[in-house]
Amino acid sequence: MSDSEGDSRRPPSPLGALNTDDNAFPEDTFRILVATDNHIGYNERDPIRGQDSINTFREILQLAVKHDVDFILLAGDLFHENRPSRDTLYQTLALLREYTLGDRPIQIELLSDPQEGKAAGFSFPAVNYEDPNLNVSIPVFSIHGNHDDPQGAGPQGALCALDMLSVSGLINYMGKFDLPIDDAEAQNTGIAIKPVLLRKGNSKLALYGVGNVKDQRMHFELRSNRVRMFMPKDKNKWFNILLLHQNRVPHGPQQSVPEGMFDNSLDLVIWGHEHDCRISPEIVAGKRYRICQPGSSVATSLGEGESIEKCVALLEVQDKEYRMTPIPLRTVRPFVVDDVCLEVAAEKEGFDLGDKMAITKFLKKKVEQLIVRANEQWDERNAKAVAEGETELPRMLPLIRLKVDTTGVSEMSNPVRFGQEFQGRLANPRDVLVFHRAKRSNKSGGKVTTDEPELSIDDPSLTTAEKLARVRVHTLVHEYLAAQEMQLLGEAGMSDAIELFVDKDDTHAIESHVQVALKALMKGVQKKGRRVRRGRPGGYR
Amino acid sequence: MSDSEGDSRRPPSPLGALNTDDNAFPEDTFRILVATDNHIGYNERDPIRGQDSINTFREILQLAVKHDVDFILLAGDLFHENRPSRDTLYQTLALLREYTLGDRPIQIELLSDPQEGKAAGFSFPAVNYEDPNLNVSIPVFSIHGNHDDPQGAGPQGALCALDMLSVSGLINYMGKFDLPIDDAEAQNTGIAIKPVLLRKGNSKLALYGVGNVKDQRMHFELRSNRVRMFMPKDKNKWFNILLLHQNRVPHGPQQSVPEGMFDNSLDLVIWGHEHDCRISPEIVAGKRYRICQPGSSVATSLGEGESIEKCVALLEVQDKEYRMTPIPLRTVRPFVVDDVCLEVAAEKEGFDLGDKMAITKFLKKKVEQLIVRANEQWDERNAKAVAEGETELPRMLPLIRLKVDTTGVSEMSNPVRFGQEFQGRLANPRDVLVFHRAKRSNKSGGKVTTDEPELSIDDPSLTTAEKLARVRVHTLVHEYLAAQEMQLLGEAGMSDAIELFVDKDDTHAIESHVQVALKALMKGVQKKGRRVRRGRPGGYR
């Protein structure tokens, strides 16, 4: 997808290179609030953390107002659930109405077709601030992520939660391209990306949104040179931003998208999906563009990446120059993660690995230290903000995760009961501890096994969580269909259907798959029947 | 709830008594489009009928535009499913945005508080045309029905699908009062109804909305004089409309709301829920007010009431005078229902009740006649509209229902297979026929049994549908809890929870009930424990 050109192909300016004072050319400078992976609705039934995601989304909208941005740019997974709860949808709609409608005049001009991507059969435009019936102050542009991707095949095609916001006029949903029904169709389609073209004064900005698809497909499309970006003829006079939501960290062959595979006319790639906050644009070897990874605004796992301070960014763009300024989020719960190896600790601290009480005492001390550290983090952040004139926020209970290597310990006490002691002092008492063991060597020769059988869940040395983590839907489906002698229904399709049913709350996924599979089967049988001249031409009853 | 006053208590003018030309006092005349029970999303996965409800809702909005109404009034069950599908919600949002936003100036002035009923914690008003950020042309006011009533208890309280439309600024949801958590609380609350007060020129209109509650509760509240209507002091100078959504037809003791129980200051009651179209306001014995029952805009059952021609109404109100003009809906599928007794027919037509072929032939002839009748209905309605200058609509496949009394017939052919012959000629081939038998006399004395045991589903003379109709959730729950020795969980609550789970798609209903029941149980046990001085005061672990 790379191309080569002359002088105008100089790389865009790196972070902070917008060599103008803040107010030098304000009428030519786009001010954009960049955020992603807000995961609204995450853990919403948790009595402590239930409102975290929505509260931080409110903070982000307030920051957009405070920093007087021209628009907000989101890179997917606005919602955690594919079908957000009523409460989540209600609060999101209300917040968008509260903070993005109003009298602030829009200073960005839409140069692309406002009808591009509009609701079929209706007259209102796809871009909300072009609708004369809505008084939009801060447009929000967003692609979908893997959590809130389009599903179903009703009269309006596949729909996602962002479509509800978009048809209400509260966001501008971009980067949706028709999802192929099966792989054969995908092979013929490719991915076509039409940009949203914006002008502010003399600066021109092109937004290329690509909603999430399976990494394998994206990888294939990029490799096959079938991602077609409809760029303006004078593309080098535009500041070109690509928005995408895919794995950046490799999770296996074709399970991620390589950083260097995009069109070299791009200036900046805003990468959603990865939750670690890496806002400063990073260089890509051999490419002009840099990658900005804003990270999530709420921790949805208690892994290390989520413990990096969470920020959104103010992106300023003037002509081909830009500056990316991180803005720390103040409503994010402090989170400290650490690990400890009991064998090492026992030696160092002088306790016995068989002494459950001593182990518990040691772990409590560790957790106490982490709570102190987390509270210090909060206080520091809060003090800094207060010094800058912000209001003080009441301290939030921290998230604490201690990973414990239990190798050599025969019996551990119950981690849920352990957490009860910390009730009221941390936000996740039920899962503050996780246990793991160093992998044991294979009995047949001492080699470390890497390809463990996927259903080896009877191994008594595994914890329940480890056992569950090893179960793969497709293996279960394979075994079930074999047991029922129903392999004709198609394993791969059935696995996908079950995943849709579970992950996307698509209650009709299995029914639809069976119907399609049976139809295909019937067709196949009929063809065969005709071929051997034994079938009834009119089909089977 | 009745009161007595003097001269000003004359009954409001009956239908057609608005003794003015259409244009005599237009600036004083409210023009209101009245509709109800649109049941959007009904049968949406049916390949033939799937889009019926949404198409007719579109027609209703178009009629509102055509008749240049000041607002639209809906009396509940806008949605068929408590949690409408994404497709349904999307299309409804789009239609409301398309037809109710625009430049048409609003001529009605809101005199009540625009903040009344607004979203907690947000600044935008509850009434959409008071929001300066929205350009509303035709406000829509609606109560909820029994299908789309509020559920759940999140941070925003119980929410329903109308809340999503309301928070988006596309409808004005009224008649929501806090639902009591249990009956004890209900006993203390009563129902408080605050009106929406509107003025157009010299006419003043008060809208009293009461969203659906269980009939038993509504009956109790009315009987106990605890439905408090907050009426203006000069209430007799207002035209007072009550909007409600309850059973009007008695379904057992306290399973409906008596027509004569409302405040006699009312001028008109608009009654949702009942699907028969009875638009002409009907007199209520001993009362000033009349009742208008618009009926549903889509047939959700194939009963006789649904075969009455479906209309919406143009309600004109000037001072205390009003006129109600029915407007037939053109997109409603023609529906003809009839019944036949095979014993009688066999005698008359001279066929044998044991001759399956002859019976089938006879029933086919009957269905053919009904199709002809339905198509004639459509053509007549269409021709009339065309004569009035409307465009011609392509004929829709009709709904046909033939109820067959099979008493004395030992074996009937399969009604689904029967319908296959009519594929492409009617909209409901799978259920065109329903069979029933005259009730057999009770063996023990010839009396007709009225109290049949509810689980008598092993009777071989019953059809599957009849068997299923007899199963009651609470009976199943009773038997299940007894079998599991779990009666402590509370039968009534568990029945309700299961109904919520099934009818309202509330996936957390059972979990919530069990939690509440267990907590109550614990409390009870603790109290008892303290009383006999054996319990630990700190509670149980």
Question: Could you characterize the architecture of this molecule?
Answer:
The structure is a homodimer of 541-residue chains. The first copy, chain A, has 541 residues and is an alpha/beta fold. Chain A has 3 domains: 11-328, Purple Acid Phosphatase, chain A, domain 2, CATH 3.60.21; 335-438, Translation Initiation Factor IF3 (2-Layer Sandwich), CATH 3.30.110; 473-531. Chain A has helices at residues 52-66, 86-100, 161-167, 183-189, 215-223, 342-349, 356-387, 415-420, 464-470, 473-484, 491-503, 509-531; strands at 29-35, 71-74, 109-110, 140-142, 151-154, 157-159, 172-173, 191-193, 196-200, 203-210, 227-229, 239-245, 268-272, 278-283, 290-293, 311-318, 321-328, 335-341, 399-405, 433-436. In chain A, β1 (29-35), α1 (52-66) and β2 (71-74) form a beta-alpha-beta unit. Chain A has 12 helices and 20 strands. Chain A has a 7-stranded mixed β-sheet with strand order 3-9-10-12-13-15-14, with no helix packed on it. The two termini of chain A are 52 Å apart. In chain A, α1 (52-66) runs parallel beside α2 (86-100). The longest helix of chain A is centred in the C-terminal third of the chain and has 32 residues, at 356-387. The A-B interface holds A 44-45, 50-51, 83, 85-87, 89-91, 93-95, 97-98, 101-103, 119, 121-124, 132-135, 151-152, 154-156, 159-161, 163-164, 167-170, 508 and B 44-45, 50-51, 83, 85-87, 89-91, 93-95, 97-98, 101-103, 119, 121-124, 132-135, 151-152, 154-156, 159-161, 163-164, 167-170, 508. Chains A, B: It is found in: Chromosome; Nucleus. Chains A, B: Residues 1-10 have a biased composition (Basic and acidic residues). Chains A, B: Keywords: Chromosome, DNA damage, DNA repair, Endonuclease, Exonuclease, Hydrolase, Manganese, Meiosis, Metal-binding, Nuclease, Nucleus.
